[in-house]
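ok so dumb question maybe but i'm new to this and my supervisor (M.) told me to 'just get the structure for Abasic site processing protein' and walked off. so i did the thing. is this what she meant?? sequence i used:
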Amino acid sequence: MCGRYASTSSDKELPSMFDAMQTVGGEPSYNIAATQPVRRLVPVATSGIGP
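this is what came out, is it supposed to look like this??
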């Protein structure tokens, strides 16, 4: 069970914690392993040259 963690915030709660617009992928879980896909916040350029 080494390296496992929990991500239990809802899809509405998670973005508001980081002043983000939305999350991408994954579902809330109490038992996430290092090899599982997880929800993530993706930065979006608001000005300047994009990626």
